Amino acid sequence: MWLRTPELDLTSFTKGATLRFQQFRAIEVGFDSGSIRILKAADDTELAVLEMTIDGTTTAWEQYSRNLPAEAFAEPIKIEFRLIADDVEEFAGWYLDDVEVIALP
């Protein structure tokens, strides 16, 4: 499953930007995983992978914060949160809240 942002035009963010959100994870280690990808808004082609393996379980909500890669500023993009899970063991999943992109000063 995946969740994608609406189109974001960051081409005027000359100093970069940071992706920040709150997350709660209950993901089976070694079998299930989440990832964060930067997609071309025009056709959803992958431009970059911000985070490849997100797994494990948190006991409370925690903040995630990463600078976006250079590919995010060349053309309009979408940010995709993707969760891949099997049906062997059932874990609650990956919860996201307060997602924001912040321009760097």
Explain what you see:
It is a single chain. The chain is mainly β and 105 residues long. The chain has a single domain, classed as Jelly Rolls (Sandwich), CATH 2.60.120.200. Helix content is 0%, strand content 55%. The protein has no helices and eight strands. The strands form two sheets. Strands 1-7-3-4 form a four-stranded antiparallel sheet, with no helix packed on it. Strands 2, 5, 6 and 8 form a four-stranded antiparallel sheet that branches. It is globular, with a radius of gyration of 14 Å. The relative contact order is 0.41. The model has no long low-confidence stretch (mean pLDDT 93).
Give a quick summary of the entry:
By secondary structure, the chain is mainly beta. It has strands spanning 2-4, 17-27, 33-40, 46-54, 56-57, 62-67, 77-84, 93-103.
Q: Under CATH, the topology is which? A: Jelly Rolls
Amino- and carboxy-terminal Cα gap: 34 Å
Largest sheet: 4 strands, antiparallel
* Major beta sheet, strand line-up: 1-7-3-4
**Tally the helices: what do you get?**
0
The overall strand count is 8
Q: If you compute it from the alpha carbons, what radius of gyration comes out, rounded to the nearest whole angstrom?
A: 14 Å
Protein topology:
Blueprint: E1 2-4, E2 17-27, E3 33-40, E4 46-54, E5 56-57, E6 62-67, E7 77-84, E8 93-103
Antiparallel strand pairs: 1-7, 2-5, 2-6, 2-8, 3-4, 3-7
